[in-house]
Amino acid sequence: MRPIRKIVVIGATGRLGAPVAIELAKHFEVRAIVRSPDKARRILPATVEISQADLRDVPGLRAALGGVDALYLNLATETADLNLPFYEEREGVRNLMTAIKGLDIRYIAKIGALGAYPPALKSIRHNIVPNIIRMEGHTIIADSGIRHTFFAPTHFMDLLPNMISGRALQWIGNTRVRIWWISSSDYARWVVEAFQNPEAMPEHCPVQGPEAISVKQAMKRFVRNYDPRLKIRVAPLWVIRMIGLFNPKMKFVAHLFAYFGDHEDPFYAGETWKELGKPTTTLEMFANQLRQRQTL
């Protein structure tokens, strides 16, 4: 395979898409296909080419995809409803595969989840709608015949600051489950290495951090190193489920956290570490770096 030179990133302005797009731009030519060019210009480096298109618009996608070698997809499904007419990770992926027909796309990498990682499925009692939809989207990509990698990450450390509300770090439900927390910076580094040597990459690539830490301990470590003034609060899952009866957004949150608290993942990432290197960011390092960035 010829070396990859130019990559299209779809989802480049997302919480996890932006760190990957920024890191990719240090090593490759990057074009971000976005719905909001103004937002993208505020977030992404000036070296990133911005193109406006939407996953519902096949002609628009095709016009934005010319002259690139590879794709990185940072898509998300945020619903508990299995009966919607359009999901970015399924219908959107199907439109994208239609748009690239006849183009010289040599490699596709996409973020998924450990809950969509085939070896993990046997240990999952009740999977969530996002994983069900994304696995169907993965099949569409695999059927294209283009070389591909589906990254299967555990929880990102970056989730924790997003759980801060007011002066409290909040969680919902079970805090005893242990998680191999991963930082977006380690993940972004692995994505870069995948594009540098796609022929060595497996179809499915589990992504886990340096150690398994319970949610309770992770919250304590994060608060201690980020802002010791924060309180730690845990909401009962049943309360969120009750609110979800009247609020679709909270219905999804309850759906998600019920899944989070229902199982803990074994360690799957040995081959990833062997191929791409071990993760280097601890939870303490992540919290300290976040605090330092916010005080600049």
Q: How would you characterize the overall build of this protein?
A:
With 296 residues, this protein is α/β, with parallel strands linked by helices. It has a domain at 6-156 and 182-208 and 266-279: 3-Layer(aba) Sandwich (Rossmann fold). 41% of the residues lie in helices and 17% in strands. The protein has helices at residues 17-24, 37-43, 58-64, 88-99, 129-143, 159-162, 184-196, 215-226, 237-244, 248-262, 270-276, 283-295, and strands at residues 6-10, 29-34, 49-52, 70-73, 107-111, 148-153, 164-165, 168-172, 178-179, 204-207, 213-214, 231-235. The strands form three sheets. A seven-stranded parallel β-sheet has the order 3-2-1-4-5-6-10, with helices on both faces. A three-stranded mixed β-sheet has the order 7-8-12. The longest helix has 15 residues, at 129-143. The chain is globular, with a radius of gyration of 19 Å. The protein starts with 5 loop residues before the first strand and ends with a helix. The relative contact order is 0.14. The model has no long low-confidence stretch (mean pLDDT 95).
